[in-house]
Amino acid sequence: MKVVTILFILLFMPVMSRAQAPDGKALYTSDCIACHAADGSGNTVLGRQLLPHPARDLRPRILSRKEIRQTIMHGRQKTGMHPHAGKLAPLAVDRLIDYILSFSYRARPERGRKLFGQQCARCHGADAKGRSYPGAPNLILSELSDIGMAHVIRHGHAGTIMGGFKAELSNAEIADTIVWLKLRRYRLDSNPSLAH
Ligand code: HEC
Ligand code: HEC
Predict the structure, then answer these.
(1) Contact at 8 Å (CB) between 37 and 105?
(2) Nearest ligand, measured from the Cα of 150
(3) Is the CB of 68 inside a 6 Å radius of any atom of ligand 1?
């Protein structure tokens, strides 16, 4: 009898624990898809209509895990993004983050170049080398990572003239701008196969 019990446990344990492990895709589908869309673009009827801000595009990887975790746990005040801390266990949040980071986005550096010309060149210079405004740094030589850059572009740098562009630029536009800057850094921006 004992042997049978042990056999039963050995045979069914893996199945049972797999069933219990939170599945990022399933969680996303039940709790997030209505606003953020299956592909993470935020392109749903509800997502687009949310006030004061529509659901943001989760595809470009411009947020750190920490920032994603904070947002899922605590939500964003006064927006449609509600806190989930009481609803989701830490492991479930981890699986959700993994799932979000599996979305793919193909950057459009040419659009980034144009946006830079419209929004940033007056301070950072058309070539992004920071000559037009005193104190605006050379962004080609910036030591910030892409996520670090995205943070400054979204939220600005408090106490300086560098204001945040989160309301003006979508996540995709921010990613396009950063990709253009990084391509310039490695002198790849004139490669026709990359600019489209
Ligand atoms: C009722 C609609 C709604 C639902 C459901 C929803 N979100 Fe959001 N989410 C939003 C909105 C609106 C924002 C933008 C908030 C802002 O402007 O800062 C947002 C922002 C985010 C952000 C930050 C994006 C950024 O660029 O700042 C993350 C990450 C996120 N949501 C993940 C999730 C996850 C994961 C779920 C499911 C557990 C979820 N959301 C469910 C509406 C929603
Ligand atoms: C009104 C002038 C102004 C505009 C417009 C502006 N910036 Fe800035 N930016 C600055 C200044 C000044 C700093 C330096 C802030 C400091 O001293 O920390 C800065 C810092 C930055 C940094 C941090 C660089 C580093 O290495 O620390 C990034 C990235 C950046 N800006 C990107 C942009 C992008 C992209 C745009 C357009 C979407 C933009 N900025 C628009 C003035 C501006």
Answers:
(1) no
(2) 2
(3) yes
Q: What is the pLDDT of residues 141-192, one digit of tens each?
A: 999 999 999 999 999 999 999 999 999 999 999 999 999 999 999 988 876 6
State which ligand 2 atom lies nearest to the alpha carbon of 165. 38
Cα separation, 126 vs 193, in Å, equals 22
Q: Report the distance separating Cα 64 and Cα 155, nearest Å.
A: 14
Q: Whose CA is nearest to atom 34 of ligand 1?
A: 32
Ligand nearest to the CA of 82: 1
Q: Select from 62, 111, 123, 184 the residue to mutate for testing ligand 2; criterion: most ligand atoms less than 8 Å from CB.
A: 123
Q: Tell me: the pLDDT tens digits for 58-82?
A: 999 999 999 999 999 999 999 999 9
Ligand 2 lined by 135 (C-beta under 6 Å)? yes
Contact 112, 176 (CB under 8 A): yes
C-alpha distances in Å from residue 51, one per residue of 29, 58, 134, 153, 186: 22, 18, 37, 22, 40
CA–CA gap between residue 133 and residue 158 (Å, rounded): 17
Give the whole-angstrom CA distance, residue 36 versus residue 48.
Answer: 9
